[in-house]
Amino acid sequence: MLFVYLDEFGHVGPYFGRAHPRFNSSPVFGIGGIIFPEEAIRPFASFFLQRKTELLDFEIKKSNKQPYEWEKHGSNLYTTKSITLYPEIKQTTFRILNRINKCGGKIFYHGREKISGTDDVNPNGLYKTVFSDAIRKLDAYCTEQKQNFVLVVDEHSARRELLETAVKTMYGQNPARHLASPPFEVESHLNQNMQAADWIAAIVGKLWTHRLGGEEWSDLKAYEDFFWARVHSLATHSTVMERSKKKPLPAKRLTLRTVEKVVAIQTETAFGAAYRRATTIKQS
Fold first, then answer.
1. 45-69: pLDDT as tens digits
2. Which residues contact 15 (CB under 8 A, 6 or more apart)?
3. Listed residue (168, 161, 167) closest to 181, CA to CA
4. CA end-to-end span of the chain, whole Å?
5. Cβ atoms of 22 and 122 closer than 8 Å
6. Which residues contact 100 (CB under 8 A, 6 or more apart)?
7. What pTM did the predictor assign?
8. What are 162-213's pLDDT values in tens digits?
9. How far is residue 58's CA from residue 117's CA, in Å, rounded to a whole number?
10. Quick one: which of 49, 90, 88 has its CA closest to 70?
11. Distance between CA atoms of residues 94 and 15, nearest Å
């Protein structure tokens, strides 16, 4: 049996750009985390608790809580500058990634680049689509491994719609036959593996925000430098689906004497680049 701990990355709502006063969180949304073999669950949880306590001892003591009931969200730990200002964060993360590999675990994520520049979006629809697609990708992986799997999610992010989506994906058309049950909900502040999945998801979100967000997210390049290769050496069946991008046409003033006809445009998709030559036919 495989256990898959998943949390969100990016943001499910509208996105206009980093400078927008409201809709500025991320150009991507997805879910990601860690796949563990059953025998690795307890040992990895103990390892993560030790590393978390070493890294964040000052904050834990200040909270007057025990380390096993204290949580640092990945979005707060992995900020724009934290991994360059505090090298110990980077080193601790390297150790966590190495342990995932050593215990036979894998990183998994699935997401989508969002439509930008409009608030006419359907966040619930996006969430359900991403979740259903993620289950099917995990089911494909488990088919290869000849294993069943269970999903573990944070109870604060789990929605009724997600549980219904999971059940439909389990039993509906083309069922995910290796999913053993609907997702289990846990309180993340008491579950070390759920916290580790949250940290991994936060890193994945930074990686893809940098990759798809353009120049305005260039300050996240350190994440690409430090973590892209390491994360993807452990990742399986993972992707962020990019939206098709049209090559901008040159701005020209149209007159009665000039008619422009676009024969082809250049596009890019998440499955590779497919190029067509753009031709302009001018007629007098």
1. 999 999 999 999 999 999 999 999 9
2. 23, 24, 25, 26, 27, 114, 115, 116
3. 167
4. 70
5. no
6. 34, 44, 106, 107, 234
7. 0.84
8. 888 999 999 988 899 999 999 999 999 999 999 999 999 999 999 999 999 9
9. 42
10. 49
11. 31
